């Protein structure tokens, strides 16, 4: 990950060799050995990753009102959780897909939309492991177009493609010429699903300021503008790690009162505010599984 600025790169570290080594290691020894080495490396990131550490501590102090000591140790726990969910991806790449289970009490919201004609927007966030849904949950009724960021290594591209392809998911890379927007719009027109993160501003100035815990933060309007223009349903999906090989999926509708009576721009902004409220609720319940490593909050 790149935590030097607000321009979140969305790339995975380690390079081709390091990532291949992880896959080999987990194929023969399991993911827990990766957790062990991760625990050893966490102090290095806490000491030398000053900007990321300060941003994470600020999140705990401003959103949760923690004191300095509790904020620091919560940051330590967050780093551990982040390392685990990243390593879980490589465990799946190594062939341990069947060892993981996904639980949910709200998947009927997603299933009902899949069964209906017409497309919809599925929004994720940097909580838990949203990407793992694309690896472990499958349906063959509608194609899912997943917006992805950053210049990942060839190993990551190949492994992602192999996992997503089994579950009717196609990756759509962000491009400078904005051609990815045509792909997403066409997917909605065809009655399919598009999915993207909605808690990061990727270089866009179009945002809306939202209350978030005890702080305020700017949330992107873009993901909601796509849905507002097409007038399609929007859901938020949060995925949290609950055990070594187990995740819990929470699906929420992103709905606003009297939204149909609002102009497109106002409707998009209202949905962004509603999404921020839903994310806030999940973050307050799972404080060390929101992986915010840059200065997200406004003064």
Question: Summed up, what is this model?
Answer:
49% of the residues lie in helices and 19% in strands.
> Which architecture would the CATH scheme give at its second level?
3-Layer(aba) Sandwich
Largest sheet: number of strands, sense, barrel closure:
7 strands, mixed
Number of helices: 10
Number of strands: 10
Assign the CATH class: Alpha Beta
Number of structurally distinct domains: 1
Which class of secondary structure composition applies to the elements?
alpha/beta
Rounded to the nearest angstrom, the radius of gyration is 19 Å
Residue stretches low in confidence (pLDDT < 50, at least 5 long) are: 1-8
Estimate percent helicity.
Answer: 40-55%
Q: If you consult CATH, what is the topology?
A: Glycerol-3-phosphate (1)-acyltransferase
Backbone shape: globular
Q: Can you tell me about this structure?
A:
The structure is a single chain. The chain has 299 residues and is α/β, with parallel strands linked by helices. The protein has a single domain (15-298), classed as Glycerol-3-phosphate (1)-acyltransferase (3-Layer(aba) Sandwich). 49% of the residues lie in helices and 19% in strands. It contains ten helices and ten strands. The strands form two sheets. A seven-stranded mixed sheet has the order 1-9-8-2-5-3-4, with helices on both faces. Strands 6-7-10 form a three-stranded antiparallel sheet. A hairpin with a 2-residue loop joins strand 6 and strand 7 (215-220). Helix 1 (15-29) packs antiparallel against helix 2 and helix 3 crosses helix 4 (68-96). Residues 1-8 have low confidence and may be disordered.
């Amino acid at each position: 990950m790149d935590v030097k600025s607000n321009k979140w790169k969305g790339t995975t570290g380690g390079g081709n060799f390091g990532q291949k080594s992880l896959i080999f290691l987990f194929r023969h020894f399991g993911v827990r050995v990766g957790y062990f080495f991760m625990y050893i490396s966490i102090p290095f990131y806490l000491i030398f990753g000053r900007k990321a550490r300060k941003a994470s501590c600020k999140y705990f102090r401003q959103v949760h009102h923690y004191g300095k000591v509790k904020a620091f140790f919560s940051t330590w726990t967050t780093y551990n959780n982040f390392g685990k969910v990243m390593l879980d991806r490589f465990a799946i790449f190594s062939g341990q897909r069947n060892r993981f289970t996904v639980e949910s009490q709200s998947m009927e919201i997603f299933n009902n939309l899949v069964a209906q004609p017409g497309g919809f927007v599925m929004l994720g966030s940097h909580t838990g492991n949203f990407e793992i849904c694309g690896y472990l949950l499958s349906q063959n009724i509608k194609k899912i177009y997943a917006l992805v960021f950053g210049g990942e290594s060839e190993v990551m591209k190949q492994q992602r493609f192999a996992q997503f392809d089994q579950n009717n998911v196609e990756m759509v890379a962000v491009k400078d010429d904005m051609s990815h927007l045509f792909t997403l719009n066409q997917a909605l027109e065809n009655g399919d699903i598009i999915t993207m993160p909605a808690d990061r501003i990727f270089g866009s100035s179009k945002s809306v300021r939202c209350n978030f815990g005890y702080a305020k933060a700017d949330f992107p309007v873009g993901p909601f503008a796509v849905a507002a223009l097409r007038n399609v349903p929007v859901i938020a999906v949060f995925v949290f790690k609950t055990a070594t090989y187990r995740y819990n999926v929470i699906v929420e509708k992103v709905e606003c009162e009297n939204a149909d009576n609002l102009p497109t721009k106002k409707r998009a902004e209202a949905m962004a505010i509603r999404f921020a409220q839903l994310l806030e609720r999940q973050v307050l319940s799972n404080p060390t599984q929101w992986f915010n490593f840059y200065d997200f909050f406004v003064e």
